Amino acid sequence: MSNGAWHHVVFTVLRAGETVTYTDGNSVGVTDGQMDEVAVWRRVLSPVDVSTLFTNGSNSKNLFGQTVATAAPPTVAVTANADGTVTLNYTGTLQSSATLGGTFTPVAGATSPYTVTPATGPTSQLYRASN
Length: 131
Known about the structure:
Distance between the termini: 31 Å
Number of helices: 1
Order of helices and strands: EEEHEEEEEE
Structural class: mainly beta
């Protein structure tokens, strides 16, 4: 893919090591290029799953099929600090969730830049910016 256009690319890997690559919803051979967004599933996606993801993205919908605004997307820049904290510089509204599939809610009182002390152990906190 060297045409300079955006493409939807999915790699599936079975536990036995078999891989399938999809580009723009179609099964293809090897693909080379830069990636913008990455998502990881705990299961192999079916061809229908891949096609649905591609169609949703092509129609301004997120991974869950929800319509997303077509305004300029919010941005997040992450800086790892020497003291172990992380600083988030963002536009829009900062939201957080304890799980990837969970509900993201606005971070009360957050203003950019926002500094986070990462949790220790098996807990996590996910952050995103939204319009």
